[in-house]
Amino acid sequence: MVLQTKTHSQKFSEGPFSQLIIRGVTLVNGNGAPPRGPVDIVVEKNIIKNIVVVGYPGVEIDDTKRPKLKPGGKELDAQGMYLLPGFIDMHGHIGGVAQGADSDYVFKLWMAHGITTVREPSGRGIDWTLKLKKASEKNEIIAPRIYAYTGFGQGSKDPISTPEMARIWVRENAKKGSDGIKFFGAAPEIMKAALDENKKLGLGSACHHAQTDVARWNVLNSARAGLTTMEHWYGLPEALFEDKTIQHYPLDYNYQNEQHRFEEAGKLWKQAAKPYSDHWNKVMNELLELDFTLDPTFNIYEASRDLQRARRAEWHETYTLPSLWKFYQPSKISHGSYWHDWGTEQEVVWKENYRLWMTFINEYKNRGGRVTTGSDSGFIFQLYGFAYIRELELLRESGFHPLEVIRAATLNGAEALGVSDEIGSVEVGKLADFVLVDENPLKNLKVLYGTGAIRLTEENKVIRAGGIKYTIKDGIIYNAKELLTDVKRMVDEAKSNEDYTITQPGMKE
Ligand SMILES: [Zn+2]
């Protein structure tokens, strides 16, 4: 772990301050309220103390009516800017060994994209993550606040094979200081025992319902047993089956062959009950009654419906590490690199898969259900931070109003983590976690990308608009663009060390 020295970190951050006043900003809150401004936001150390509306659009602000700066306080002129609560990434792996992505690289990409909170659904091991969590809590490193969910069974001497073993492991996990558990599925009696024990302890849980266990235990079983959030989408179509009990696998299917795994997964929603049918409604309504959270992570599968889009994303050249780029390439070994023979047929099937999946997610939101935003970056051509903004765009595509997108990205995540009294919206008494951007993100979510949005000026000049300007966490102001510059430096260094240029799969250099 690299601890920032004082001088090193000053380039990237300032604060916290005895008093910080953010002046004249337009507030887009995470609670669903429409934009409002200009407002002055008063922060002391890392707590929001006051939010004062100081005028009207286009009218000069009367300075006598503004909150007063105390001696030693700091003012941030944010006129013309938009302020949102810090974003919450509910599915952020801090960086795998196979991807060669170390924590400093990943954290800076996240912070540069306004992500001030990350839930890690298992990673390099709970001790490693908890160490980073503590360092982030003390702001010794540049990193979002971390909620650590341990992979179920991780660290156990023997595979967990009985309900009693499951309960013991769950208690041990809580004792270590973990915030929850990430499941991939297990035998029903083990899932039941583990979820029951975890619920008693008041910890959170997430499950990627892997196809290996889903025939016996789908999303509905998990929700009934006390799971708090489901990841991705696996296990949901299975809960919606009407005319089968097992996915319609071709007979030469092999789960270890990821072209099989992902190609067939693309046909899954089509095998489930039709949108708005009785069974579809019944399953949705039961999940709603259980106050169950959906964390779809749309972006991580997007290459399945448009490989070229994901592969040629403009940020790869500048911000993707060589090791990560290599990991993404077609491979029988790397997870999520299932491009053995991926063509029009597979993409068209996946487009339909998305349409059905998005219909479910949007309607779940319309009926009062909680949908959150998770990225799962580091696989399938999805880059940390950038892919999170793409996730926001995909919620928009699903039918969410931009304000509903922002609420999913902020308050909903805080609620799912059980910390909505601290973060998730801009309210007096909450922590000073903010995103500041000099463009209106509701009009175009693309202004939140580190690379900004493309725009033509009145003078017929092409420019980049936006890119987050400041990310504030715990009252500390981070210069988002400086963080990105540092990521570029890391990537340049790795490229020059390895004499590496990014090329496309199968092409000669
Ligand atoms: Zn994941």
TrEMBL record:
Domain Amidohydrolase-related: 363-475
Membrane-spanning residues: none
A Pfam family that the UniProt record links to this protein: Amidohydro_1
Highest taxon of the lineage: Bacteria
Name of the protein this chain belongs to: Amidohydrolase family protein
Organism of derivation: Aquimarina rubra
